Amino acid sequence: MKYRREIDGLRAVAVVPVILFHAGFEVFSGGFVGVDVFFVISGYLITIILLTEIEKGEFSIAKFYERRARRILPALFVVMAACLPFAWLWMVPDQLKAFGQSVTAVVFFVSNILFWQESGGYFAPAAELKPLLHTWSLAVEEQYYLLAPVSLALLWRFGRRAVFWCVVATALASLLATEWGWRFAPRANFYLPQFRIWELLAGSICGFIATSRAPRPNELLAAIGLALIVFAIFAFDSGTPFPSFYALVPVVGASLIVLYAHKGTFTARLLSTPVLVGIGLISYSAYLWHQPLFAFARIRSMADPSPELMSGLAVLSLALAYLSWRYVEQPFRRGPIPLLPSRQAVFRASTVAGVLFAAIGTYANVSKGIPSRLAAIEPGSREERLMASARMPMGTGRCEPGPRTNGAGALCAVFEPANAERRILIVGDSHSSVMLPAWAGVGERNAVYWLGAPGCPPLIGVSVHGGMFDLGVCEDVARRQIEMVKERGFDTVVLVARWSLYPDGYNPGLGRRVSLSREGEMRGTSQADSAELFAQALPNTVAAYLALGVNVVLVEQIPEQKVLPEKTLQQAALLGMSGGVDDEAFEKAIWESSTTVEEGRKRLAFTRDVVEKLRGEKVWVVSFEDAFERNGRYVWGDRGGAFYSDQNHLSVHGTEFLRDSVTRAFEQISRQARGDMSAVADHP
């Protein structure tokens, strides 16, 4: 096959945005599409090689897999080996256990399946701490290569044309599957081969075209191809449904380049510049090195690593890539070397190395992360208490059977004192349920009940798309909340929710975007339409409660954080910052890793404006943001532990921290309600 410098240049265009995206540079918000470009290139090149060998009668399965082993395994095993000492030194047991699972999964090229089964998604904050997360794409490719050569050889008897249309049909089926997948199975859609194979087959289709009637160079189509890739890199972000029809943008772009950006075109000359070709040659090693460097930097740091550090690590990934390309990739790919003089030697060495890594990974998993490494974290120690502080509060009191088998919409009695002064119903999503322990002071004199469901905002007249439940569940819960106020004689309704999520927000834990529509509509709406619906639905909901004669309290969303407190506490324990001798350093680390007031208010500005406008007669608005504010930042914890269990939910310690604030705020509301006052400022 004739060497094309522009293809190596295209590899550089693919790998650099991936690296910068994982480094956290927001301008490259769609840098993850570089993987899709790699899929097209891989499908294209492999198909040309296979077609050429089959047509010449030289095809050999053993030869094919020998090439794959020489191409993929040496550099991969070197990077995995380099990860081991840092994992041992810096990972807490849960992290090391998960890392061990990923090591074993990589050996068998099933890491995509492992990451699919884990909680969260590719864009979730916890994903940044997985050194081998990026190997999911290698697994997808190798799973494709398990079937593609054999299928091609078997189907060849029906003729080249029949094979081509079989490839086209399979690609279309996979493309349609991914459009379904991002809506109903987002994690599977991202990681599993049946939803990704169309991207590799797009390259295969290009390979068929190029080896039959090779297209002439075309300046316009080649330039459009490059423009599509660049557009996706800068226009897409973690909230873009992906993969989906959106993935056609980078995939079609890469396809146009491999078909039409031949020598002589401007695009080919641009991609053939020495810098891009050089990066393209080392792109595989660069891809392997970058994620472990970034992940271990984040694991080691109390706060988010600085942009300067991440920039330096990005450069280091290229330097390490050159070394592994020069001294690992090239010697193995140029053919037999003294240590591996034959195909059998390649397979034997690969098996031995694979078994060794699988054994190491299995031991880390079975031993639950080798906790003996961290003898300083003893049962009952302060470190253990700090980590326990980040747990999410569980339990909603005594609950009646709900109308749904999943428990959504059950009415729960949280506090039931004798001779209760008031009957309070708290409604909302998971933010309302985790906040319940903070109402303990109020519950000493008032009956407090809860009715809600995770991912279901207390809004009537709208449907929630992309949430935790099937369409219709949240609507039923919202109607039941109104019904319970009518039937059970509540005099106060408290609305608590992660308000900012519903005007079309991205939920990392679910790995997909959440949006609203008018009740009963089967599809979500755009961000602008979801925001407009939210701005209508909340006032309508408040009006519906007021019509029942009850007082309404709206609790503003607590500030969101940019780090995972549990992870940061674990690092504090490893670094010795949580001990009594260094509380000042510990609190400084908390402050430095907390979100700024400016960032927090910007994130919540829209929904806060909607909530604030509802102050009025019998409607109170309560905010607890001042409780978290310290010198220009909303802190996620103190010396006693974490206020948050993740980036937006309160923890056990957080509910204890807010208990007095909640009690004071409600006492003030009660006094003003008795005095028939129309509004109240935020709690003092």
UniProtKB/TrEMBL annotation:
UniProt keywords, alphabetically: Acyltransferase, Membrane, Transferase, Transmembrane, Transmembrane helix
Top-level taxonomic group: Bacteria
Pfam families reported in the protein's UniProt record: Acyl_transf_3 (PF01757), SGNH (PF19040)
InterPro entries referenced in this protein's UniProt entry, alphabetically: Acyl_transf_3_dom (IPR002656), Acyltransferase_3 (IPR050879), SGNH (IPR043968)
UniProt keyword Transferase present: yes
Transferase is among the record's keywords: yes
MF-aspect GO terms: acyltransferase activity
Protein name per its UniProtKB record: Acyltransferase
Domain SGNH stretches: 410-661
Domain Acyltransferase: start-end pairs: 6-325
Transmembrane domains' residue ranges: 7-25, 31-51, 72-92, 98-116, 162-183, 195-212, 219-236, 242-261, 268-289, 309-325, 345-364
PANTHER family linked: ACETYLTRANSFERASE, ACYL_TRANSF_3 DOMAIN-CONTAINING PROTEIN
